[in-house]
Specification:
48% helix, alpha+beta, 6% strand, single chain
Length: 531
């Protein structure tokens, strides 16, 4: 065997993304609510970034510099200077594609801190940082008035269990069972596992701690299922959950209306206990043949079952729904017969670079480490302002291109949606297709047809017999119209649905019909059939 060493010279090109370009890409991809949060964080962390309240002259700034410098010396806080490596910025590259969008062409010079123009609010309202001038802090008032965190499912059930009068021997096993319930209220963990994982506990004060046994858990489980509300808690499967609710179902509701009679509840128990699988597959004739019940009786029992819940614990915990804030608004101008798009940036703060710190960064009388600290923060502040302005410019251009291409959608609705590839918009605007993709990511626009995702307007489609192009979403609308109009006693199969769409000039395959039907959460023909 022979070892050799050699030297080689290789010429090549390699593309790397600068940290500032990564920041621009992130800002472009952020929805409005996330961008507002990011700006709020930057305002708290960057001393050189501020909210514009009003323009001040250079003379006024110089007059205030004496007080600013004096206050800065009194603070006596250490200043940390960024080493400039920005290695953490590159760690965010994993969440982006290999291609990069066009970035802002204007680069910020560290020696130039003049403020750049930015749009003011239409209502003329100004915002500024809270000052310690004796006035109440609006943020603190808002935090004090905010609702408290709602109790978790386990906390609510443990509170209920603490009020239940049970034997001391099953109180601790009951608490262990409650701690293992999932978000739907089911006990999917075997009792043997609960016994092994539960820490030793003393059933009575002064007694020696001992591990729970399966026998103790089996004795506590019926009590947990009986006393905890809503009914169905601690069930081990859907069948047991529904049976527990049927056992607790009253014949008369709170408002005096009759929910179900004893006969209907008994029939519903038979269906759940013995024919739950047939019910899930809509095999009503088979159930009628097996039980001797008529179809009318089965339908009445099904009406009782539909009042039940297969996830009873969801009633206790309110899932927080994240509000949707549209990034752009499209309105119809009747006088000019056209649609106008504008950004929903009334909530966006008007940012600017702090001119006092800009002057201090150029002053040779200020210590070098302080000037370096200020220059770093000033540079970061200006880059953020440029990135936000670039986001506004790019997003508005993309929205205008959508409004121009999808005029029929705004006039007639989703059925008139046309195919619109992102590459077409990118070529029209002269930007990279990845820029368009990031501009529409997680964005919503408010239109006369409601608030819709911006990405909805970018999709492929097919060409009808008349040569007109129709988007996939428009085909889904047509498919839903055909299914809504069908005879439910003889629902159309996927192949028949494809034939009906073909009569409308939309020729798609049967498997495509099945895929779109699943996406619309529409069951198969057998499940749609009514008896």
């Amino acid at each position: 065997m022979r070892f050799e060493t050699s030297q080689q010279m290789k010429l090549g090109q390699q593309m790397k993304l600068a940290p500032r370009m990564i920041q621009s890409m992130e800002i472009l991809q952020m929805p409005l609510a996330e961008l507002e949060e990011r700006i709020e964080q930057e305002l708290e962390n960057n001393v050189a970034l501020e909210l514009a309240e009003g323009e001040r002259t250079a003379q006024e700034i110089k007059q205030e510099r004496t007080e600013v410098e004096r206050d800065a010396r009194e603070l006596e806080r250490p200043l940390k200077v960024d080493d400039g490596s920005a290695s953490s910025d590159f760690e965010r590259l994993e969440s982006f594609e290999s291609t990069h969008p066009d970035a802002a062409e204007n680069e910020f010079s560290a020696s130039d801190y003049e403020p750049r123009s930015a749009d003011r609010f239409d209502d003329g309202e100004s915002y500024g940082r809270a000052r310690n001038d004796g006035e109440r802090d609006g943020k603190m008032d808002a935090m004090a008035a905010a609702p408290a965190r709602s109790a978790s499912l386990t906390e609510q059930l443990l509170d209920q269990w603490a009020l239940v009068e049970v034997e001391p021997a099953i109180r601790i096993p009951g608490e262990a069972i409650i701690s293992f319930l999932d978000d739907d209220g089911y006990l999917r963990t075997p009792l043997e596992t609960i016994a092994d994982r539960s820490p030793p506990a003393a059933p009575e004060p002064g007694a020696a701690p001992a591990r729970l046994t399966v026998e103790q858990l089996e004795k506590a489980l019926p009590a947990v299922q009986l006393f905890l509300e809503p009914p169905g808690i601690a069930a081990r499967d859907a069948r047991e959950c529904l049976l527990l609710q049927l056992d607790a179902l009253p014949e008369v509701s709170d408002d005096g209306g009759v929910i179900a009679g004893p006969e209907q509840i008994a029939q519903a128990r038979v269906l759940v206990d013995r024919h739950l699988e047939d019910l899930s597959k809509n095999r009503l004739p088979r159930i009628a043949e097996s039980t001797g019940m008529s179809l009318d009786q089965i339908r009445d029992a099904l009406g009782v079952i539909r009042k039940l819940s297969v996830a009873p614990a969801r009633r206790l915990v309110n899932e927080s729904v994240k509000p949707i804030i549209p990034d752009a608004i499209v309105e119809y101008d009747a006088e000019e017969d056209r649609y106008i798009a504008y950004l929903n940036d009334a909530r966006m703060p008007n940012l600017r670079v702090n001119q006092e710190y800009a002057l201090m960064a150029k002053d040779r009388g200020v210590e070098k480490k302080d000037r370096e600290f200020l220059k770093t923060n000033l540079s970061n502040a200006q880059w953020l302002i440029d990135a936000v302005n670039q986001r506004k410019h790019t997003l508005l251009r993309v929205v205008n291109a959508v409004v121009q291409a999808q005029r029929e959608y705004f006039d007639y609705g989703p059925q008139a949606l046309k195919p619109l590839p992102m590459t077409l918009v990118a070529d029209q605007l002269g930007i990279h297709v990845a820029t368009v993709s990031r501009a529409v990511a997680d964005k919503y626009i408010q239109t006369p047809r409601g608030v819709v995702p911006l990405r909805k307007f970018f999709s492929g489609g097919v060409q009808t017999d008349s040569g007109e192009e129709v988007a996939w979403d428009a085909i889904k609308v047509a498919l839903k119209e055909v299914i809504d109009a069908e005879d439910k006693s003889k629902p159309l199969s996927d192949e028949a649905l494809a034939e009906e769409l073909k009569k409308r000039g939309l020729e798609i395959a049967r498997r495509t019909v099945a895929k779109y039907r699943d996406q619309l959460n529409i069951p198969s023909a057998r499940m749609r059939k009514t008896f």
